[in-house]
């Protein structure tokens, strides 16, 4: 039985995957952080037929390590809200780490994004590994893989419970009875973890999707809490093996791409940027360098191994144009991928069911306690 069509995602943070990508951008350096630039890139991705875009983020600036890239960025959730308002079918998934951020705030931000986008929000679960992030937050350092995974796991569980804390029919809006809410359908989360506790319920009604789509790399959070596993592998076979081992409903392979353009080969473009900074390979990621036709063949091979891919272009302004003209159209012609349909949520585009609130599923309602702070 053939696999469903490949889902296509692309990372659009900054000017590209190479730290010196800004040197080849089609705009002035000062335009990087402008709404016009972001809207233009998002429009290209949507018109090309991508299912979703992701937006990298950290409390630390991208050039904090002393590299040659930009030294500032706008928050991913804020950029995602702008992209959601300027597009109509494109899924939008910002990176948000719960290592130091409060899960209550994360839940509210992402639920609001899902409302703003009419059900097109996703969440790439991140982790802040640099001790400088703890200093920026004014929090004790979370050190070690186990502690980082604990914070991500607990944070994700709390966020999911907060999304579920309003049942779907909790909002009544009854003028006749002067009731806006059915308070019996709001639930306290009452989470107590090793480093924090959360009472709940959320201050934002349940998102249109029930829960925005959660993307995470295997090992950071339990497989049962993620909708999409972001897997690596040096070959399509390795990516497929990692996808099967991940245990999530869907698995996307991470692929770095540098494509031939009409004026230069991919190797020439990389060599030009390597004069300023090396392009370090991502952890256990596929990397493709060459003509568009070769990338189509690679994605065709991946289509038999994974459910989707997240592409990381070398230089957005150059590679995204080639992807739009030569790669995605061929994938659609060969029925290896499909465009998202207007009026659908991101969950629908990905073939994921809309989950019930776990409080509805569990049956008994937890009374909401009035608290003073």
From TrEMBL:
<dbReference type="InterPro" id="IPR051260">
    <property type="entry name" value="Diverse_substr_monoxygenases"/>
</dbReference>
<dbReference type="Pfam" id="PF00296">
    <property type="entry name" value="Bac_luciferase"/>
</dbReference>
<keyword id="KW-0288">FMN</keyword>
<protein>
    <submittedName>
        <fullName>Alkanesulfonate monooxygenase SsuD/methylene tetrahydromethanopterin reductase-like flavin-dependent oxidoreductase (Luciferase family)</fullName>
    </submittedName>
</protein>
<keyword id="KW-0503">Monooxygenase</keyword>
<keyword id="KW-0285">Flavoprotein</keyword>
<dbReference type="GO" id="GO:0016705">
    <property type="term" value="F:oxidoreductase activity, acting on paired donors, with incorporation or reduction of molecular oxygen"/>
</dbReference>
<feature type="domain" description="Luciferase-like">
    <location>
        <begin position="30"/>
        <end position="218"/>
    </location>
</feature>
<dbReference type="GO" id="GO:0004497">
    <property type="term" value="F:monooxygenase activity"/>
</dbReference>
<dbReference type="InterPro" id="IPR036661">
    <property type="entry name" value="Luciferase-like_sf"/>
</dbReference>
<keyword id="KW-0560">Oxidoreductase</keyword>
<dbReference type="InterPro" id="IPR011251">
    <property type="entry name" value="Luciferase-like_dom"/>
</dbReference>
């Amino acid at each position: 039985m053939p696999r469903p069509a490949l889902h296509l995602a692309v990372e659009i943070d900054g000017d590209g995957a190479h730290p010196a990508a800004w040197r080849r951008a089609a705009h002035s350096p000062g335009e990087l952080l402008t709404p016009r630039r972001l809207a233009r890139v998002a429009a290209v991705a949507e018109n090309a037929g991508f299912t979703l875009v992701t937006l990298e983020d950290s409390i630390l600036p991208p050039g904090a390590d002393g590299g040659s890239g930009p030294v500032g960025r706008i928050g991913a959730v804020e950029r995602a809200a702008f992209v959601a308002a300027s597009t109509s079918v494109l899924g939008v998934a910002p990176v948000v780490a719960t290592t130091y951020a409060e899960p209550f705030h994360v839940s509210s931000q992402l639920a609001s994004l899902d409302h703003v986008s009419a059900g097109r929000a996703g969440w790439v679960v991140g982790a802040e590994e640099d001790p400088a992030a703890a200093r920026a937050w004014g929090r004790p350092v979370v050190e070690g893989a186990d502690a980082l995974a604990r914070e991500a796991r607990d944070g994700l569980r709390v966020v999911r419970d907060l999304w579920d804390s309003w049942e779907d029919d909790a909002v009544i809006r009854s003028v006749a009875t002067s009731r806006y809410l059915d308070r019996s359908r709001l639930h306290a989360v009452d989470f107590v973890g090793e480093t924090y506790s959360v009472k709940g319920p959320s201050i934002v009604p349940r998102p249109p999707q029930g829960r925005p789509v959660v993307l995470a790399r295997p090992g950071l959070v339990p497989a049962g809490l993620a909708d999409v596993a972001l897997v690596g592998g040096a070959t399509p076979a390795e990516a497929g093996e990692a996808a099967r081992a991940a245990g999530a409903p869907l698995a996307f392979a991470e692929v770095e791409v540098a494509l031939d353009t009409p004026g230069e080969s991919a190797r020439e473009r990389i060599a030009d940027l390597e004069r300023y900074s090396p392009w370090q390979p991502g952890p256990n990621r596929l990397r493709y360098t060459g003509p568009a036709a070769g990338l189509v063949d690679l994605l065709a091979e991946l289509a038999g191994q994974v459910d989707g891919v997240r592409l990381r272009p070398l230089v957005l302004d150059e590679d995204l144009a080639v992807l739009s003209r030569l790669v995605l159209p061929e994938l659609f012609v060969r029925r290896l991928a499909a465009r998202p349909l207007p009026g659908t949520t991101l969950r629908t585009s990905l073939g994921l069911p809309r989950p019930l609130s776990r409080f509805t599923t569990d049956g008994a309602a937890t009374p909401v306690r009035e608290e003073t702070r």
